[in-house]
Amino acid sequence: MTKISNIAKNTSYLTVALILQKVISFTYFTLLARYLGPADLGKYYFAISFTTIFAILIDLGFANILIREVAKNQEKASRFLGNVLTMKVPLAGLALLSVFVLINVLHYESLTKTLVYISCLSMVLDSFTSTFFSVARGFHNLKYESISSIVFQLLVLTVGYSALLLGGGLIPAMGALALASAYNFIYSFIILKKRIGLAIRFFYDKPLVREIIQISWPFAVFAIFQRLYTYLDSVLLSFFAGDVQVGLYQVAFKIIFALQFLPMAFTASLYPAMSAYWQSNREQLAISFERAINYLTIISWPIIIGAIILADKIVLLFKSGYGAAVLPLQISIISLFFIFINFPIGSLLNACDKQKKNTFNMGIVLIFSIILNLILISRLQAVGASITVLVTNVLMFILGIIQARKIIVYHPKKNLKNLGRVVFASVLMGGFIYLSRDFLNIFIATIIGAIFYFVVLFLIGGFKKEDLLSVYNSFKRNKNIL
């Protein structure tokens, strides 16, 4: 019972931390956007995107291996950690060298190069922090990682924005990120050494290193694909269209990124249940999958319709100079539906031992994304990148649902009927928001619109009282499963 209680608490810690982290991060992004303007914001996020791509060279799937292997045998934790650290040090050097060479070959201006160099410090420190916290996860301890993630964002917010207000500019703002990364690194090291009581030493055990590499490569390939898919568009935008377009695109990207805590928190509870049902109850697995699609459809569409109608007012939250971000936001936000339902699809594949299919799908989507970005960015700039986001998320959904139907007996009719009800209620809500947007405050209009949406959806049978009880009970059951 103690173990069950610990896991339940860890899930709660991580969910709360995830929500707070996204809120603080988006608050800082809004303040940063208002203060910097599109061009400087573009430089800032280009530097982060550029170095984040190379960060995968330091952690080739090692985090997943550490969590899994330490959880299996905690007595081997120090040896696994020591061998991973021994591999990561030269890999960190390789990543730094790669960044330095490429950023100079591309002939970026000195300010952009300086931002990239500072961001490199965060890249390396964050990678080692992830390693330390991965071991802590193997000991079923997420409390300190959850606390650290919130403190990290608060440090970035307070130090970074204070530096901007004092006239420091972009370099101190990026320095705030490096400072927060340094805090995270030191904190995670101390937690592992003092709280977990683990000896942190370098080891080189050739058979174990070979075993780690052999196990980690599928995770590494998926991580490389995912990292490139997520951040390469900003790098390509900077190269082909300039910093202003990166800044405009980041408005849409950050809004979508911030909203992902909703399906992430939902699937955190769904995934263990799917794993259990795969072993014991395939019929219930199909029902859970169908319900997950319904719930995330209900959540996503009012956000999509509301954001499309209020896009010009949402963009004004950042600054008047972001007017050109309206269309990219309106296009990108449609992808939210596919992003949301791709979470349970991915969880289903992983829960049913189809991780390689997920990796294969991500590889296809990445190739398609690169080709589409190369074609569209030069012609349509930030709008082109937004179209790519929408099309590639649709493609990821198609590839995923094809695999899902090979695993479970899935009939999409119920989901499609519910989608029709949800879109109908969302459009009615959108009509209300559109008519009231000029005389009601945006936040008041949004709250009233949300209430109106759920009332209409309930009246037309989009969800029932039993569905609410089912969601509540499923969370209770997931705790018992854990």
Structure description:
The chain has 17 helices and no strands. The chain is mainly α. Helix content is 86%, strand content 0%. The protein has helices at residues 2-36, 38-55, 62-72, 77-105, 110-138, 143-165, 170-195, 206-241, 243-259, 261-280, 282-316, 326-351, 355-380, 382-407, 413-436, 442-459, 465-481. The protein folds into two domains: 1-241, no CATH class; 242-482, no CATH class. Helix 9 runs parallel beside helix 14 and helix 10 (261-280) crosses helix 17. The protein starts with a helix and ends with a helix.
Please tally the β strands and state the result. Answer: 0
Main β-sheet description: none
Low-confidence stretches: 1-8, 477-482
Report the helical percentage.
over 70%
Write the layout of secondary structure elements.
Layout: H1 2-36, H2 38-55, H3 62-72, H4 77-105, H5 110-138, H6 143-165, H7 170-195, H8 206-241, H9 243-259, H10 261-280, H11 282-316, H12 326-351, H13 355-380, H14 382-407, H15 413-436, H16 442-459, H17 465-481
Task: Please give a handful of descriptors for the protein shown.
mainly alpha; 482 residues; 2 domains; globular; disordered C terminus
Précis, in short:
With 482 residues, the chain is mostly helical. Helix content is 86%, strand content 0%.
